[in-house]
Amino acid sequence: MSNIGIEKVNGHIIIMEVDILDLIEEDYDGTQEELTAQKVLQTVEQAWLNEKFSPEILPHISDHVDCLLEQIKEMEGNLAKLPKSDPKVDLHKLELERIRFVITSYLRTRLKKIECFCISILEEEENRNSESAYLSPEELKFAQEFAQNADNHFDTVLRHMPQLYNKLDRNTKVIEPNINSFVFLKCNTHIDSVVIKNTLESREEEIVLENGSQHLMPYSSVSEFVKKGSVQLI
Q1: Which CATH number is 178-234's, of 3.40.50.1370, 3.40.5.60, 3.40.50.1360, 3.80.30.20?
Q2: Do 122 and 130 touch, CB atoms closer than 8 A?
Q3: What pLDDT, in 10s, does the model give residues 130-184?
Q4: Are 110 and 57 in contact (CB under 8 A)?
Q5: Of 22, 87, 104, 210, whose Cβ has the fewest other Cβ atoms within 10 Å?
Q6: CA–CA dist 58, 52 (Å, integer)
Q7: Rounded to whole angstroms, how far apart are CA atoms 126 and 153?
């Protein structure tokens, strides 16, 4: 039975129909990275947990989400060919529902952050190019439309307020994530230096994080390591 293979060529993810044995036996050169559907699922699950527990919005993985959606479509087609009495059908349906839940929760979490921190996210996004963008094209369009609708709403309401109160400056409208909030994390690799800022005592402490160790610390100290995949929020 064939499975979905995901091939990354020059930074672009391509879905192709392959036999599962080919994924194990075939060798690839340095310009191609073969990713199984299970690996893509693992990446999405890790991104989902990071997105849930991080105070700020993280770089999108829309390519991986699209690959999983294609995998779901393929699995549904295979399930339709199986007899309904086959005990594997119910197990596969449960797995499909689990994958759908992860994808849905991931996307909803990002949309909530966009709605809450819309202006600050858009301001930061303006300083990034297309390759380093945190928002997918669809999310960027949603954020821009949400910000415009919010401005129109405030303009309508404030028009009926006394002149002293009918204007809002940027600091009044902008809500920024609290990047100093504490998070639980697990190290995926050895990290030689992590700087933890003690805002109460106005001093810094440098520590080493061992591979596999778990910690509770300010998100601001490990935000870059989260984005690189060196640590996993839990």
Answers
A1: 3.40.5.60
A2: no
A3: 889 999 999 999 999 999 998 888 778 777 777 666 676 666 678 899 999 999 9
A4: yes
A5: 87
A6: 10
A7: 23
